[in-house]
Amino acid sequence: TWHTSGKGLTLMEFELSRNIAIGQYIPTNSIVHRLDPRAKILCTFFLLIAVSISRSVIISLLLLGTIMLITRLARLPFHYILRGILRSFPLLIFFLALALLYIGWQSPDGRVYFEWYFIRITRGALQAIALSLLRLFAFVFLVSLPSLTTTISQLTHGLEIMLQPFQRFGVPAHEIALVNMIALRFVPTLAEELEQVMKAQASRCGEIGQLSLRRPVQIARALLPLVVPLFVNAFRRAEQLAVAMEARGYIGGAGRTKFITLKGTGLDIIVTLGMLVLCVAILLTPWPALHTLFPGL
C-alpha cells in the first residue's frame, strides 16, 4: 500500500494500463477476429454514424444491443472494456445531474415529473440523459473493439488500402495510416509511463491520493508533477522513434511495397453489407409497437 497525505492508496489504483482497452489486442480466435480489417473498419464506421444520428432512446438501445452482441461474438469480457469508464462513473453522474437540472428548465413544454425550488425534472431531460448514457457506452465499445479484435499492423494496412483511391485527390493515405498506427500504439505506452510517474511521486509522498474539487490548488500541485514528466517522456519517445525511422531509411508511401497483403472473402462482404442494411433498417423503421409501449422514447 502506498501512503500519500496520510491516506492509504492501494497499488491497484496505480495500474492504469489495466483500465485502458484502446490499443490492446486480445486474441480469442473468434469469428470477429478472423474478419478482414477493412470489414471491421467499415462496420465500426456504420455503427458510429448510426449511434451519432440516433435521436430515440429505443433505437439507441437496439444499436447498443447490437454492439454488445458483437462483443459477445468476439469473446471479449464486458468488464474489461468498461473498466476505464466505470472508475470515473461517479464524476460522470455528477455532470449528468447538473445537465439534468439545466435541461429541465430549458424544456418547459415537456411533462414535469418533479419540481421543487430550482430543481425541475421533465421527460425531455430524462430522455436526453438516457440518450447520452447510451451513446457514451456505445462509443466506448466501438472505439475499443477494432483494436481488441485486430492487431495494429492489420488495422494500419486496412486503413491505408481503403484510403488509396483518394490519393488521386492528394490525400496522403500512407501517412494517415502511419499516424493512426503510432497513436494507437502510444496509448498503452503513455498509460504505462503515467503509471510509473505516479508510483514515483507516491513513493516521495506526493499528493496524488483522494483529491477534492473544493481545493483546486491541491489538484494543480498534484497534477503538475505528473503532466510535465509525462510530456517530456512522450516527446523523448517521439524523437527516438523519428531517429530510428530515419536511421533505417524510412520513406513515405510512394514506391513502397507491402509484405502483408489483405485478401477479403465473401463472408467479409456479407458482414459489411449486412451491417449497413441493419443500421439503415434500425434508423428508418418506426417501431410502432415499441413506441406504443414506451411513448415519447
Basic shape: globular
Counted beta strands: 4
Helix vs. strand class: mainly alpha
Outline the biggest β-sheet.
2 strands, antiparallel
Q: Please tell me the overall pLDDT.
A: 77
N-to-C order of helices and strands: EEHHHHEEHHHHHH
- Percentage of residues in DSSP E strands: 5-15%
Radius of gyration: 23 Å
Distance between the termini: 48 Å
Oligomeric state, counting identical vs distinct chains: single chain
Which percent range fits the helix content?
55-70%
Low-confidence stretches: 1-12
Across the major sheet, the strand order is 1-2
What's the number of helices?
Answer: 10
Overall description:
This protein is mainly α. It is 64% helix and 5% strand. It contains ten helices and four strands, in the order ββααααββαααααα. The chain has a two-stranded antiparallel sheet. Strands 3-4 form a two-stranded antiparallel sheet. A hairpin with a 2-residue loop joins strand 1 and strand 2 (7-9). The longest helix is centred in the C-terminal third of the chain and has 32 residues, at 216-247. The protein is globular, with a radius of gyration of 23 Å. The termini are far apart. Residues 1-12 have low confidence and may be disordered.
